[in-house]
Amino acid sequence: MQKLWSGRFKEKTEKRVESFTSSLSFDTRLWKYDIEGSIAHVRMLGRQKIISKKDAESIIKGLDEIKSEIQAGKFRFLESLEDVHMNIEHALIKKAGPAGGKIHTARSRNDQVALDLRLFLRDEIKEVVKLIRGFQKVIVAVAEKNIDTVMPGYTHLQRAQPVLLSHHLLAYFEMLERDSERFEDCLKRVNVLPLGAAALAGTTLPIDRKYVAGLLKFPAVSENSIDTVSDRDFVIEFISASSMLMVHLSRLSEEIIIWNSDEFGFVELPDAFTTGSSIMPQKKNPDVLELTRGRTGRVYGHLISVLTVMKALPLAYNRDMQEDKEPVFDTVDTVKSCLYILAEMFPKIRFRNKEMEKAAGSGFLTATDIAEYLVKKGMPFRDAHSVTGKIVRYCIDKNMTLTDLNLKDLKQFSKLIGKDIFHYITVEASVNGKTSFGGTSRKTVLARIKEIKKR
Length: 455
Prior knowledge:
The chain is mostly helical.
């Protein structure tokens, strides 16, 4: 089959070269955007009288027919035509005759590919943000349901201070909030029309790029034709934002995996979202969470892949940039699938409130509250820290907990300690005393939930 660009060549392309250079195995998913962009481009060509109104109508009719054929599964994509763009143009010329050959007037595959990818990512970013918002709602609902559950807060994976489970869960809400903001900010740089840059220098034909931008709902038009066709910053930025999102989904998955272990026993995962062992009948494995954690590495890999492709490319377009598609597509699919499955699973997790509260009451988790009690009595914090450390050491030596101590025991460490100290060292008092903005008290957490729900 003769290539659409074959005029300059004497020899046919080797079959192996066709196979090696083809992007058809993955870029067919851009067909909708290719047709959408082409229709807008042709409307502009007709409006500017670069092609006749009759030819423009014939081309648009042919593109609509191709769209219907693809939707019905009747369109045959040919690998010999390299990519989705050439396949659609080839089919159009068959339908519209010589008029079809005018579709590529005043554009190149370079700005055409950039347009399709921007249209694709624009839709997908909106979908990702929607899924993030949905998962945030789930987290808030679970947090509100467990508003009175106390658990140990951890640093260095050691029990540190008692916190509300709801407060812990809302930490992930805040992470997802930043993720959503990153995607929405990325969208500003995705939402720029590249069409009209042509191969790299623009065109001598009297095109109207702003008109095309209006048709395709782009709020901005790219300013430099060389930058336009060689820019993949928006791809890198999208995968970077996706990597940050996956960091947070992975951390959440890891915590639930740990909490689900017998060593913690804080949660029980739903049967429908776990798997069994091929050899150990008793096993119930958190595979969904482990795969989310594992696929995080995949998204990181895509970010490094595209950064590496772009790092030494001279301006303007180079075929290396074809290698941006698979990382983008797989990142989109991975992020969306993880958000879908976690949002479905999370409400079905059973939190073992008693086990959490028991863990929060063991050890010396209210030691900081003793130090702050002494500060309120006028003792410098560093001295209060030292005194409290000695109290903890005493308890360890005597095999006691803080709540086992009586007033006489405590007074030997400081005369500032009075009977009122026992109002400070219980788990409940510790949690509800943290009323500083952003703290873990019930009052503070409920206020945050109310604010989130109002928004």
